[in-house]
Amino acid sequence: MYTASAAFLDSLQEAGVAHVFANFGSDHPALIEAIAAARAAGRPVPAFVTCPNEMVALSAAQGYAQLTGRAQAVVVHVDCGTQALGGAVHNVMRSRTPVLIYAGMSPATQEGEHRGGRNEFIHWLQDVADQRGILRPYMKYDHEIRSSRNAPQIVHRALQIAESDPKGPVYLVAARETMEGEASPPSTDTALWRPLPPSPAPDEIVGEIAAAIAGARRPLIVTSYVGRNLVAVDALRRLCRDFAVGVVESAPSVMNYPHDDELYLGAYWNEPTQNPALAEADVVLVVDSDVPWIPAVNAPSPQAAVFHVDVDPLKESIPLWYLKARRSARADGALALRQIHEALGRIADGTRVDERRAHYVAARRDRLAELARREAPSAPRVSAEWLTACVRRAIDDEAIVLNEGITNYTAIANHIAPRRPGSFFASGGSSLGWSGGAAIGMKLAQPERMVVALTGDGSYMFSQPSTVHWMARRYQTPFLQIVYNNGGWRAPRFSTLALHPDGHASRAGDLDLSFNPSPDYSGIAAAAGGALAIRIERPEEVEAGIARAVEAVREEKRCAVVDARLADD
Q: What are phi and psi of 374, to 5 degrees?
């Protein structure tokens, strides 16, 4: 019998879902049977990737979708597996990543009324009042497949919502009896379920922004994720180069602008200092950013005219959020930037553009000199800047770099200095442990490219490295992982000292944040997945250690994990 589970699989295949990252349970017999039946019949279905940890599964799906823009699917076990997705749910929501999450539900019958009814004791324990409510605050859409006959329509609707701006995750559930029920093979016209097209900015607001930039002495663009759309990078670069507009990145989660361009002025995260480019700007255009600055410590001048163009300008999922912008528009970044470019072409003042360019070129020259100074190795311990510079020199522009360095976010972004769209990513959220699973997802998506995950020691532990490296070996997704080993949780320490610089914590020897004695980080990966394990403690060891690790990934086709002990601050 052709079942709803078979229709579910065929609908994913129709929609272009390439991989299902799966953690199966007792709610999935019909799905497991449907997979086996499809393979026996030679019917194509998505590739299934076994994921012993649910958070790794969702992080892998996120990584694949971040790199390709195509939604992938995750299968988990009832309420338990749904909860075990953990912080990855936050990450896919905040990063606006399209992912379809499917979980079974406890059977709805118990006396043999339907095939798939309760026959294990856990079916009573896993019957909860509102399973969908576990994820509802984080999803764009949640729904229960209630009939075996319309599973294809529900799947296609969910994916249409997930892939329409602002993109995001969706959650489907179904009872065992429903997924065991008889269905008809789908013959879906996928053109009827296409995502909504991107929207341009209103002409009136485009005109105001263009006029403000044309008359500005120090116009500046601030962005965090406009580069999620690869073509937006070129649109941003053309606008900035043609009209001499500076660019800074606030907590960038993708490569937004080539770092070797003369208008690029750097990135910032949580540093408690005022960014000079932001301070001197008289016109600021924010394009696709959730947190363009932190007003208490780093903000534009009160006299600066601020404009805001974003795929999600109201940030309705963030209860406290506002930006004191003169005008805001909901629009696709690439389209809006092209509109502004066209409008500026009619009114720009060439003399003013030349003066701005000279100013920003000089500022960039000073910035590069400071970066070079910071990159210089200094004994006796390894600095994050020197370590990152060595990684940069050992890879090429084709490599994909994942940044989960936490307190080293800024050092990694500024010293990796990405130049190619689609070559640099962060989670887009704040739940740690994304980079391991994401590296697997990205390597599955584009196996010919080198994947490099740069992670703090805390985020490495959160990533479930034993699961990650077992999966990497099984699915032949070797990647390079560098652990920026601070000896513990440095971020809570920085947060505490920022609020209590002279308090008891500033004088305490132990803040319960240390990981001493240090785990054997690279040894975990070696035991779980045969990774090359390297430990680095001195600056002179870095270049050779990185070179050996790159060789293992490229030539030996296995993961390499470098545990680099950093200098204490």
A: -70, -25
For domain 4-185, the question of CATH label 1.10.760.10 is answered with no
Which ranges of 275-349 does DSSP label H, i.e. alpha helix? 276-280, 333-345
SS3 22: strand
Contact 382, 564 (CB under 8 A): yes
Report d(CA 77, CA 48) in Å as an integer. Answer: 15
Kindly give the parts of the chain with pLDDT less than 70: 488-491, 493-494, 497, 505-506, 511-514, 569
In the Cβ-directed half-sphere of 212, how many Cα atoms lie within 13 Å? Answer: 24
Q: What are phi and psi of 404, to 5 degrees?
A: -130, 45
DSSP per residue, 377-395: --SSSB-HHHHHHHHHHHS
Q: State how far the alpha carbon of 516 is from the alpha carbons of 510, 534, 561, in Å.
A: 11, 19, 19
Q: Report residue 202 CA to chain centroid gap.
A: 29
Residue found by looking up tokens 């999803």 in the block? 139
Residue 476 gets the label, from left (phi > 0), alpha (psi -120 to 50) or beta, of: left
Q: Helix count (H) and strand count (E) of the chain?
A: 22, 18
User: Roughly what angle, to the nearest 10 degrees, separates helices 4-14 and 29-41?
Assistant: 60
Residue type, 507: R
Q: Tokens for 150? A: 């319309």
pLDDT of residue 494: 64
Domain locations in the chain? 4-185, 203-368, 376-565
**What is the pLDDT, as a whole number, of residue 502?**
79
Secondary-structure class of domain 203-368 per CATH: alpha beta
In the β-sheet with 72-76, what is the strand arrangement from edge to edge?
Answer: 47-50, 19-22, 72-76, 99-105, 170-175, 141-144
Domains 203-368 and 376-565 share a fold: yes
How high is the pLDDT of residue 489?
A: 62
Q: Which CATH class is domain 376-565?
A: alpha beta
